[in-house]
Amino acid sequence: MNYPKDLLMVSPEYFDVVYQINDHMNLENKVDKTLAAKQWGTLKSTYESLGMNVIVVPGSSSFPDMVFAANQLFTTPTQTFLSQIKHPERRGEVAYLKSFLKLENSIQVNSGFESMGDLLWDYAGERLFGGYGFRTDPNSYDEINEKINYSIRKIMLTNSTFYHLDTCLSIINKNTAMYVRSAFSKETISQLKNDFVDLIEVDELEAKNYLACNAHSPDGEHILIEKSAIKLQSDCKMRGFKVIGIDTSEFLKSGGSIFCLKNQGWFRN
């Protein structure tokens, strides 16, 4: 399977921290909306410079977290699955995107499911890794498995700081991934070491303070990493990857970074 060339992003004009639904959110930590818009624009331009087709959905004042476009839907080459988001503050985002993208033939997942926040593709290896424990119900993967021909490896999350799998596991290609040790059991880490030839351990402070593991490789060659995660950038450069540092400081205030801000997939109904 080739890496999909389409990226979905939601414009950031309404992004703000107005409620607290994860360990990173603090109502006293105000968002600089001008800076957030600039950072979002830099991320979008970076993807476009790498040959990605960026589809922009306009934001809504009703949904300040909808800018985190990884969470509302999950796609395969032939099907689209809609999330069942845990927190009521964000549930309406799903219907909004379904309507905007005209996803009449999409499949609504009935169990708790937060899409690419927890269900990650290894595109080249045609494998899926599904996190559960804080936002997504493991039963959702059984629902999805009935309708796809790809295996899903279920992974239990154990640390609320890393509430989505995309905050503690980043798949670069079929051989390489990065992970946060404190997010998983010893048994899970052993299994991940079997799944990937090179499993890069992310520094705990960079993972916690900068969501360093919320990095993204759109093509298995380039890796976009939060610019403050200096050690992780160095570790990836040493392995020959083309590393691009991206400032997401404003979005970190809401518990999201690069991977959260886009949805890579197939957006044709």
Summarize the structure.
The chain has 269 residues and is of the alpha/beta class. The protein is built from seven helices and 14 strands.
Q: Can you tell me about this structure?
A:
By secondary structure, the protein is α/β, with parallel strands linked by helices. The protein has one domain: 5-stranded Propeller (L-arginine/glycine Amidinotransferase, Chain A). It has 7 helices and 14 strands. It has helices spanning 33-49, 88-101, 139-145, 186-195, 204-210, 230-238, 249-252; strands spanning 6-10, 53-57, 73-75, 80-82, 107-108, 119-122, 127-132, 152-156, 169-171, 176-179, 198-201, 222-226, 242-246, 263-265. The chain has a 3-stranded mixed beta sheet, sandwiched between helices. Strands 3-4-5 form a 3-stranded mixed beta sheet, with helices on one face. Strand 1 (6-10), helix 1 (33-49) and strand 2 (53-57) form a beta-alpha-beta unit.
